[in-house]
């Protein structure tokens, strides 16, 4: 099983790496995305502390691109109810700006 990795893209806190493998004569191709989410979490905390109540439009959350790409792969990127469940999960609180339920 031969595996090859190479850096595909690196911008800011997002790094993408291409991984190819030969598994039993079948080639596979994957793009792995890694992102340092600490800057997003810090900015969300500041925005949460400075959030003003009122108005119809609210900045609800900022999520890492790796989470959005996972949503695309899993087929829920355009599903508002799936995002609502994901954002209301207490495990994802650090990505929320607005503290009310979505």
In words, what does this structure look like?
The chain has 102 residues and is α+β, with helices and mostly antiparallel strands. The protein has two domains: 1-36; 37-102, no CATH class. It has helices at residues 38-50, 65-74, 80-88; strands spanning 3-11, 14-23, 26-35. It has a three-stranded antiparallel β-sheet. The termini are far apart.
In a nutshell, what does this entry contain?
By secondary structure, the chain is α+β, with helices and mostly antiparallel strands.
Question: Can you lay out the helices and strands and say which pair or pack?
Answer:
Layout: E1 3-11, E2 14-23, E3 26-35, H1 38-50, H2 65-74, H3 80-88
> Number of domains in the coordinates?
2
Strand content range: 25-35%
Number of strands: 3
On the 0-100 scale, what is the average pLDDT? Answer: 85
Strand order of the largest sheet: 1-2-3
Keywords for this entry:
102 residues; alpha+beta; 2 domains; 3-stranded antiparallel beta sheet; 3 strands; 28% strand
């Amino acid at each position: 099983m031969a595996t090859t990795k190479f850096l595909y893209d690196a911008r800011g806190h997002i790094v993408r790496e291409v991984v190819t493998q030969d598994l039993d004569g079948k080639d596979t191709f994957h793009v792995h995305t890694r992102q340092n989410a600490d800057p997003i979490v810090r900015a969300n905390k500041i925005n949460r502390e400075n959030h003003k109540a009122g108005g119809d439009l609210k900045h609800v959350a900022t999520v890492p691109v790796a989470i959005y790409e996972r949503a695309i792969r899993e087929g829920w990127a355009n599903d508002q109810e799936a995002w609502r469940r994901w954002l209301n999960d207490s495990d994802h609180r650090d990505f929320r700006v607005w503290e009310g339920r979505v």
